[in-house]
Write a structure and sequence with these properties.
mainly alpha; 6 helices; single chain
């Protein structure tokens, strides 16, 4: 009986929903990149530097885009599915760290990322 209730409560997730969720997570990951770049420019050039102001403007733009996409996701998707996918932001953060900031990926980070992705797949899998 309990198993049947869990299956009834679980709704399948289609690729369009997952795509929108991942778009929102991707946009939010760009915000973290812009934040780091803004801090780097701020420490060297100060708060009135045109490059710093441009970074902050882009940051606000991407936050706005993220908010619009995320609200659309929340209208169409179960909260439990939407929020579990936010963990995928760690993938984008590690990717940006490696390619944009030349940071090393440690074994612990790689294993943690694989566990996270496995958990997301397990929660959103089709029965």
């Amino acid at each position: 009986m309990e198993k049947e209730c869990l299956k009834a409560a679980r709704r399948s997730v289609n690729f369009k929903e997952v795509g929108k969720i991942q778009l929102a997570v991707f946009l939010y990951s760009i915000v973290s990149v812009l934040s780091k770049r803004s801090a780097m420019v701020l420490s060297v050039q100060g708060p009135r530097a045109p490059l710093f102001i441009a970074h902050v403007a882009l940051l606000v733009l991407f936050l706005g885009l993220y908010a619009v996409v995320w609200q659309g996701v929340l209208k169409e998707t179960d909260l439990s599915i939407a929020y579990i996918h936010k963990g995928f932001g760690l993938f984008w953060t590690l990717l940006w760290s490696m390619f944009l900031f030349q940071e090393e990926l440690t074994w612990n980070q790689g294993i943690g990322l694989m566990v996270l992705i496995a958990g997301i797949i397990l929660v959103t899998r089709h029965d």
